Amino acid sequence: MARVVVDVMPKPEILDPQGQAVARALPRLGFDGVSDVRQGKHFELEVDDSVDDETLARIAEGFLSNPVVEDFVVRRVQA
């Protein structure tokens, strides 16, 4: 078994209202010095060792993300 992490983020040119809301709230909560926040999604998958990188990319692009407005990164991590 292998652990795979897929991080999905809005593309840089896409407005991120959730990230903006967090960025505006931080100074009110006493956290200064944060100039920008982008909010995304984090997935952890347990897969058989036989699942190849192409299959993982198809899962990320076709199911876990919306490739029109989001970018993704797939990485295998140590279990």
TrEMBL record:
The entry's keywords: ATP-binding, Cytoplasm, Ligase, Nucleotide-binding, Purine biosynthesis
Single GO term (MF): phosphoribosylformylglycinamidine synthase activity
Assigned EC number: 6.3.5.3
Pathway it works in: Purine metabolism; IMP biosynthesis via de novo pathway; 5-amino-1-(5-phospho-D-ribosyl)imidazole from N(2)-formyl-N(1)-(5-phospho-D-ribosyl)glycinamide: step 1/2
InterPro entries associated with the record: PurS, PurS-like_sf
Keyword Magnesium in record: no
Reactions catalysed: N(2)-formyl-N(1)-(5-phospho-beta-D-ribosyl)glycinamide + L-glutamine + ATP + H2O = 2-formamido-N(1)-(5-O-phospho-beta-D-ribosyl)acetamidine + L-glutamate + ADP + phosphate + H(+)
Function: Part of the phosphoribosylformylglycinamidine synthase complex involved in the purines biosynthetic pathway. Catalyzes the ATP-dependent conversion of formylglycinamide ribonucleotide (FGAR) and glutamine to yield formylglycinamidine ribonucleotide (FGAM) and glutamate. The FGAM synthase complex is composed of three subunits. PurQ produces an ammonia molecule by converting glutamine to glutamate. PurL transfers the ammonia molecule to FGAR to form FGAM in an ATP-dependent manner.
Subunit relationships: Part of the FGAM synthase complex composed of 1 PurL, 1 PurQ and 2 PurS subunits.
Protein name, UniProt field: Phosphoribosylformylglycinamidine synthase subunit PurS
Name of the encoding gene: purS
